[in-house]
Amino acid sequence: MSREIVLKKQSAGGETRAGDVLQRMRRDIVNCDLKPGEKLRFESLRERYEVSFSTLREALSRLSAENLVVAEGQRGFVVAPVSIADLNDLTDARVLIEREALAKAIRKGDDLWEGDILSAFHRMEKLQQRIGGEYYLSDEWSVVHGEFHYSLVAACGSPVLLEMRAKLFERAHRYRRMSSQFRTKWREKDVEHKMIVDAVMERNVDTALKLIELHIRETSANVIEHAGHLFPELTSEARRPTKKPPSIAAE
Question: In terms of CB atoms within 10 Å, which end of the chain has fewer, N or C?
Answer without folding.
Answer: N
